[in-house]
Amino acid sequence: MIYKEMATRNNSKNPPKPVIRPPIIPADWSHRIKADDPGNNEIRIVLPDRIYRGKTYSDLISDWFNWLLTTDPDKHNSASVAFLRAVDIPLSGVDTEDSKKQDGTSESNVSDAYADDVYFPRKYPNNPNVMIGGDRLQIYSDQAVFVPIIVAYAESSKPYIDWGLMQEYNGTTIDNGDNPPKKDQLTINGAPVILDNMEQFRVSTPIFTAVVPETDYGRSAKDFLEMNFPPGQYPVMVEGYFVLIRFGAGRYQLHSRARAGRETHGPYFAELLYEIEVFDRNNPAVRPARNDTLIAKVVQDKIKTGELEWRIGEEMGDKIKVRILKPT
After folding, report:
1. What's the pTM?
2. Is residue 312 domain-resident?
């Protein structure tokens, strides 16, 4: 749109010149990519200098870090922005009783043994986070997805840790890794997300308060970060590469991988693989992703105990037909 600015003086020899102003880009997006699946709508990337729903990228990073520390974080993705994580949380969303064997021991590979010094770095598995199938993310098309590609954080858990130490730690960690990540390190449906200037997606937060909950071991990322800290509230600073994405209705596969500098326990590599199912908001009934998995598990357990039997039914092709056994 072109606006004309009138001259402050009336001079026929020097008529007023039009002032050309740049077009106003909508605040919620400015970079678009196409999805591979023709049934999907456009995928929109929100640039870091934009305000989204009243929040900057820095605000969203602060929210994301506190979400990561929340008990069962994947149960809390119903707001305007859904968060992803590259940290594997083995017991997130799992009933504590369901995760135990008959002898009372846990089926997970986590340990409940804490070091004497609660601030001392504990076992750092550095495993990828895979959320597909029954664990896939289900959101609506009016929600955005916040993707952490590579992240460094520093908390002031000791009196001598100040702003300068936290900034230098985070900066050095990111500087000595994939800085910036290459285009093939963030893909959607197997296609790289090509951004004009990946460097601008590196964002650092000011100091904010991180709330660490007191919860069962294995249900919060606090137990699987390299520098763990006990329940409480701490000043924290976060820096890294993040991307905010809007999806149209459809199903997508998002993959991200990146490395940073060496940590106390060795190389730091962040990787996530998400299956994302997006619905229109007017969809009256969205079936939970875990239902198929849970139903299949129950049926398989009953087949093993003999309560049910299965056979291949000719009328059903290669599908399994389940029949309830009649009591003898």
Report:
1. 0.73
2. yes
Residue owning tokens 């459809």: 250
Are 218 and 318 found together in one domain? no
Tens of pLDDT, residue by residue over 6-63, are: 333 444 455 555 444 333 333 344 455 544 444 445 799 999 999 999 999 999 999 9
Q: Which residues, in sequence order, are CB contacts of 174 under 8 Å at separation 6+?
A: 150, 152, 202, 239, 240, 241, 260, 261
User: First-to-last CA distance in the chain?
Assistant: 82
* Highest mean pLDDT (candidates 179-183, 296-300, 307-311): 179-183
Q: What's the number of domains the chain is made of?
A: 2
Spatial contact of 36 and 190, defined as CB atoms under 8 Å apart: yes
Instruction: Indicate the SS3 state at residue 242.
Output: strand
| Whether residue 299 sits in one domain with residue 232 | no
Residue span of the structural domain in which 328 resides? 295-328
Tokens 């936290």 -> residue? 166
Residue 251 maps to a domain: yes
- Give the 3-state secondary structure of residue 253: strand
**Quick check: 183 and 119 in contact, CB under 8 A?**
no
Q: Is 188 among the domain residues?
A: yes
> DSSP 3-state assignment of 58?
helix
Considering the domain architecture, whether residues 280 and 299 belong to the same structural domain is answered as no
